[in-house]
Write a structure and sequence with these properties.
Layout lengths: L2 H11 L22 E6 L2 H9 L4 E4 L6 H8 L4 E4 L5 H9 L4 E4 L15 E5 L6 H5 L8 E5 L7 H14 L3 E5 L5 H9 L2 E6 L7 H9 L31
Parallel strand pairs: 1-2, 1-8, 2-3, 3-4, 4-5, 5-6, 6-7, 7-8
Length: 246
């Protein structure tokens, strides 16, 4: 099991009425936040800066030969790498560098790349897929599904569509945003099935702001599970006296 999945599940376990997508102890400075915060980084210095600001996950964006140094700088923080058209050789290289997970495009990545059991998997959300096509990803046992942040304010329909994606693929959402967003937006994303918010490299300096916004997100709304039903008095089926003999 990847450390990324551990941290997502740990956050779900410690959040009241969370979505239920749940690790043992982890050195995660953002355990008290509603969503896990991730940051794209290109080098060890950027990795250390992001972690100091509160990032709980890192996505490495540099050349593969620089991955190990970023993993070492990250210490126990999970580090993944995005390779759209990943091969078995790519997966082995990532695992050998102690990376935690692979972000991949299902249409371009070879099936043998997913045979590497040391890596977790984050799927790039497919566009325009039917429900049957989305359900096919369930057996992959994904850690998350990466989607781009909605443009503008998310409508109710848009929120339901995101949640439907998470339910069909059977994995929480990771939302990639190019700027820090406020707590109300994060609450909408959380209720749509998001467990991770990933800041693009250009917005890495907003990590601390995003972490604080995550802390301000309210717990999920408590919904009444059972409705009280009016009970009618039972009708007696028989007589309350003995029948007379003929």
């Amino acid at each position: 099991m990847s450390k990324l999945r551990d941290r997502i599940r740990d956050r779900a376990r410690h959040s009241p009425r969370a979505l239920g997508f749940a690790i043992g102890p982890a050195k995660d400075r953002t355990r008290g936040t509603a969503l896990l915060v991730g940051v794209e980084v290109a080098d060890p210095d950027a990795a250390r800066t992001a972690i100091e600001a509160g990032a709980g996950v890192l996505i490495f964006t540099g050349a593969q030969d620089g991955l190990r140094s970023v993993v070492e700088a990250a210490d126990s923080t999970p580090v993944g790498m995005r390779i759209d058209a990943a091969t078995a050789e790519d997966a082995e290289a990532l695992a050998s560098a102690a990376a935690d997970f692979l972000v991949f495009d299902a249409g371009q990545t070879t099936a043998t790349a997913l045979l590497e059991r040391r890596l977790g998997g984050v799927l790039l959300a497919p566009n325009g897929s039917s429900d049957d096509e989305l359900r096919r990803f369930g057996p992959l046992d994904l850690d998350a599904v990466l989607v781009g942040a909605p443009s503008g304010e998310l409508s109710v329909t848009g929120q339901l569509e995101l949640r439907h994606l998470a339910e069909m693929v059977r994995a929480p959402l990771a939302i990639l945003t190019e700027r820090a967003v406020d707590a109300s937006t994060l609450e909408v994303w959380r209720d749509a099935g998001a467990a991770l918010v990933l800041l693009g490299a250009a917005a890495a300096d907003e990590t601390a702001v995003l972490v604080e916004a995550c802390r301000a997100v309210r717990p999920p709304r408590q919904r009444e599970e059972e409705r009280t039903q009016a009970l009618l008095p039972a009708m007696t089926a028989g007589h309350d006296h003995d029948d007379e003999e003929d």
